[in-house]
What we know:
The chain has nine helices and no strands. It is mainly α. Helix 3 runs antiparallel to helix 9, helix 4 crosses helix 8 and helix 5 crosses helix 6.
Amino acid sequence: xxxxxxxxxxxxxxxxxxxxxxxxxxxxxxxxxxxxxxxxxxxxxxxxxxxxxxxxxxxxxxxxxxxxxxxxxxxxxxxxxxxxxxxxxxxxxxxxxxxxxxxxxxxxxxxxxxxxxxxxxxxxxxxxxxxxxxxxxxxxxxxxxxxxxxxxxxxxxxxxxxxxxxxxxxxxxxxxxxxxxxxxxxxxxxxxxxxxxxxxxxxxxxxxxxxxxxxxxxxxxxxxxxxxxxxxxxxxxxxxxxxxxxxxxxx
Length: 251
């Protein structure tokens, strides 16, 4: 990843480094967002949730679709509700582990943790969609993520913000990004936006990082609670689409 250009004599603000996941539990350990996404979110923190939602559908949508095909082949009698319940148990457990996954202290560590949690939650939502035969690769899933995670209240505003984020992503790829301010300001803004997406108050995440021992206790409770709430909203949405008006399926 690249560092931002120094401004006003300040040292460059490095992007948050994705945490190293312990090799001892590869099936259960949460995964961090990709490095290129961290760069985009750092450079454009105002639209960090939108960048994360777009990248999640691109990277995690195919994984969710493959999982659903494999699960139905292995469990031909399983209902959509049963498959969704398997998804929820799996990712709520992962969310619990993401409370102190980065091992970094202070504000940068808190930002990394909420980023990992938001990424884990996005993966869960896309898997729940696939469990109900709703195409996890469709661009509408990014809109769903932002509404379900309460970044936006309605789909229309979510779509507008996604369009802005996509345009800024293309512009950044073509022309690069300008210099950032001090590291603390960038990280705080990014942390607040990601905490909003993950359903965890930024103050709680910072507290969990600054008070010894609090990361495990508070992080576990806050992450699992927020993820369970998101899971129930997601299940209700996609179950309704399956039983009434189906969502977009595979092309």
